[in-house]
Write a structure and sequence with these properties.
globular, single chain, Hemerythrin-like, mainly alpha, Hemerythrin domain-containing protein, 6 helices
Protein backbone atom coordinates (compact mmCIF):
# COMPACT_ATOMS: atom_id res chain seq x y z
CA UNK A 1 0.00 0.00 0.00
CA UNK A 2 1.34 3.38 -0.98
CA UNK A 3 1.63 6.05 1.60
CA UNK A 4 0.39 9.43 0.68
CA UNK A 5 2.95 12.12 1.19
CA UNK A 6 2.07 14.42 3.97
CA UNK A 7 1.12 17.83 2.81
CA UNK A 8 2.17 20.58 5.05
CA UNK A 9 -0.05 23.53 4.78
CA UNK A 10 1.29 26.72 6.06
CA UNK A 11 -0.78 29.79 6.47
CA UNK A 12 1.32 32.72 5.44
CA UNK A 13 0.31 36.15 6.44
CA UNK A 14 0.58 38.77 3.80
CA UNK A 15 3.49 41.05 4.49
CA UNK A 16 2.47 44.15 6.35
CA UNK A 17 1.96 47.00 3.97
CA UNK A 18 3.91 50.10 4.84
CA UNK A 19 3.81 53.69 3.77
CA UNK A 20 6.39 54.81 1.25
CA UNK A 21 8.09 56.96 3.86
CA UNK A 22 8.60 53.92 6.11
CA UNK A 23 9.99 51.82 3.26
CA UNK A 24 12.48 54.58 2.46
CA UNK A 25 13.51 54.99 6.12
CA UNK A 26 14.11 51.23 6.30
CA UNK A 27 16.36 51.44 3.25
CA UNK A 28 18.13 54.45 4.78
CA UNK A 29 18.92 52.13 7.70
CA UNK A 30 20.46 49.62 5.28
CA UNK A 31 22.64 52.41 3.89
CA UNK A 32 23.59 53.57 7.39
CA UNK A 33 24.51 50.03 8.38
CA UNK A 34 26.81 49.71 5.39
CA UNK A 35 28.34 53.08 6.22
CA UNK A 36 28.95 52.05 9.86
CA UNK A 37 30.63 48.80 8.77
CA UNK A 38 32.75 50.67 6.26
CA UNK A 39 33.80 53.30 8.79
CA UNK A 40 34.75 50.55 11.25
CA UNK A 41 36.88 48.64 8.75
CA UNK A 42 40.57 49.55 9.03
CA UNK A 43 42.92 50.42 6.16
CA UNK A 44 44.68 47.13 6.81
CA UNK A 45 41.65 45.40 5.21
CA UNK A 46 41.52 47.09 1.79
CA UNK A 47 39.64 44.20 0.17
CA UNK A 48 36.87 44.38 2.74
CA UNK A 49 36.74 48.16 2.45
CA UNK A 50 36.47 47.89 -1.34
CA UNK A 51 33.71 45.27 -1.09
CA UNK A 52 31.73 47.39 1.39
CA UNK A 53 32.19 50.51 -0.76
CA UNK A 54 30.92 48.52 -3.74
CA UNK A 55 27.89 47.33 -1.78
CA UNK A 56 27.21 50.89 -0.62
CA UNK A 57 27.50 52.07 -4.25
CA UNK A 58 24.99 49.46 -5.42
CA UNK A 59 22.46 50.07 -2.64
CA UNK A 60 22.67 53.85 -2.92
CA UNK A 61 22.25 53.76 -6.70
CA UNK A 62 19.21 51.50 -6.33
CA UNK A 63 17.85 53.83 -3.65
CA UNK A 64 18.19 56.76 -6.02
CA UNK A 65 16.35 54.81 -8.72
CA UNK A 66 13.34 53.97 -6.56
CA UNK A 67 13.06 57.50 -5.20
CA UNK A 68 13.50 59.16 -8.59
CA UNK A 69 11.28 56.76 -10.56
CA UNK A 70 8.46 56.34 -8.07
CA UNK A 71 8.49 58.49 -4.95
CA UNK A 72 9.66 61.92 -6.10
CA UNK A 73 7.33 62.16 -9.12
CA UNK A 74 4.35 61.13 -6.99
CA UNK A 75 5.17 63.64 -4.23
CA UNK A 76 6.42 66.63 -6.23
CA UNK A 77 3.11 68.48 -5.76
CA UNK A 78 2.96 67.69 -2.05
CA UNK A 79 6.19 69.34 -0.93
CA UNK A 80 8.74 71.73 -2.43
CA UNK A 81 11.43 69.61 -0.75
CA UNK A 82 11.39 67.19 -3.69
CA UNK A 83 13.38 69.57 -5.91
CA UNK A 84 16.10 69.90 -3.28
CA UNK A 85 16.19 66.13 -2.69
CA UNK A 86 16.68 65.53 -6.41
CA UNK A 87 19.59 67.96 -6.40
CA UNK A 88 21.10 66.25 -3.36
CA UNK A 89 21.06 62.96 -5.25
CA UNK A 90 23.41 64.49 -7.82
CA UNK A 91 25.76 65.54 -5.02
CA UNK A 92 25.58 62.10 -3.41
CA UNK A 93 26.33 60.46 -6.77
CA UNK A 94 29.36 62.68 -7.26
CA UNK A 95 30.64 61.90 -3.78
CA UNK A 96 29.97 58.21 -4.23
CA UNK A 97 32.02 58.28 -7.43
CA UNK A 98 34.90 59.97 -5.57
CA UNK A 99 34.76 57.26 -2.89
CA UNK A 100 34.75 54.42 -5.43
CA UNK A 101 37.71 55.95 -7.28
CA UNK A 102 39.83 56.23 -4.11
CA UNK A 103 42.27 53.52 -3.09
CA UNK A 104 40.91 51.94 0.13
CA UNK A 105 44.43 51.81 1.61
CA UNK A 106 44.82 55.59 1.59
CA UNK A 107 43.93 58.66 3.58
CA UNK A 108 42.09 59.97 0.54
CA UNK A 109 39.64 57.08 0.88
CA UNK A 110 39.13 57.98 4.54
CA UNK A 111 38.46 61.63 3.63
CA UNK A 112 36.04 60.72 0.84
CA UNK A 113 34.30 58.29 3.19
CA UNK A 114 33.90 61.01 5.82
CA UNK A 115 32.40 63.41 3.29
CA UNK A 116 30.14 60.62 1.99
CA UNK A 117 28.97 59.84 5.52
CA UNK A 118 28.12 63.47 6.21
CA UNK A 119 26.34 63.94 2.87
CA UNK A 120 24.30 60.77 3.30
CA UNK A 121 23.25 61.66 6.85
CA UNK A 122 22.34 65.18 5.82
CA UNK A 123 20.20 63.99 2.92
CA UNK A 124 18.57 60.96 4.54
CA UNK A 125 18.17 62.03 8.15
CA UNK A 126 17.97 65.79 8.23
CA UNK A 127 16.35 66.60 4.91
CA UNK A 128 14.11 63.61 4.25
CA UNK A 129 13.33 61.93 7.57
CA UNK A 130 13.07 65.04 9.76
CA UNK A 131 11.63 67.53 7.29
CA UNK A 132 10.20 66.13 4.08
CA UNK A 133 8.66 62.85 5.25
CA UNK A 134 6.64 64.37 8.13
CA UNK A 135 5.31 67.00 5.74
CA UNK A 136 4.36 64.32 3.21
CA UNK A 137 2.64 62.23 5.87
CA UNK A 138 0.64 65.28 6.95
CA UNK A 139 -0.56 66.25 3.47
CA UNK A 140 -0.48 63.16 1.23
CA UNK A 141 -3.26 60.59 0.97
CA UNK A 142 -2.50 57.63 3.23
CA UNK A 143 -3.76 55.04 0.72
CA UNK A 144 -1.46 56.55 -1.90
CA UNK A 145 1.49 56.35 0.49
CA UNK A 146 0.79 52.66 1.16
CA UNK A 147 0.44 51.93 -2.57
CA UNK A 148 3.72 53.77 -3.21
CA UNK A 149 5.32 51.75 -0.40
CA UNK A 150 4.35 48.54 -2.19
CA UNK A 151 5.75 49.85 -5.46
CA UNK A 152 9.01 51.01 -3.84
CA UNK A 153 9.58 47.68 -2.09
CA UNK A 154 8.75 45.71 -5.25
CA UNK A 155 11.03 47.83 -7.44
CA UNK A 156 13.90 47.59 -4.96
CA UNK A 157 13.60 43.80 -4.81
CA UNK A 158 13.48 43.58 -8.60
CA UNK A 159 16.60 45.74 -8.86
CA UNK A 160 18.44 43.68 -6.26
CA UNK A 161 17.62 40.41 -7.97
CA UNK A 162 18.30 41.60 -11.51
CA UNK A 163 21.45 40.23 -13.12
CA UNK A 164 21.33 43.09 -15.60
CA UNK A 165 21.26 45.68 -12.82
CA UNK A 166 24.19 44.01 -11.05
CA UNK A 167 26.15 43.93 -14.29
CA UNK A 168 25.46 47.63 -15.00
CA UNK A 169 26.48 48.63 -11.47
CA UNK A 170 29.68 46.56 -11.71
CA UNK A 171 30.48 48.21 -15.04
CA UNK A 172 29.85 51.68 -13.60
CA UNK A 173 32.22 51.00 -10.72
CA UNK A 174 34.87 49.64 -13.07
CA UNK A 175 34.63 52.72 -15.30
CA UNK A 176 34.90 55.03 -12.32
CA UNK A 177 38.01 53.23 -11.11
CA UNK A 178 39.52 53.30 -14.57
CA UNK A 179 39.07 57.07 -14.79
CA UNK A 180 40.83 57.48 -11.44
CA UNK A 181 44.19 56.53 -12.92
Amino acid sequence: MRRRPEVLTEVREAPEREKATRVLVEHHEVLRGLMRRLLATPRSQPGRRRALADELFDELRMHEVIEEEIFYPAMRDVTPGIAAAWSEHRQLSDQLAALVRADPRTGRFDRELGVMHDALESHAHLDEEREMFPEIERFADEDLLVELGDRLRDRLERLRSSRRTRMVLRLQRALLRRTAR
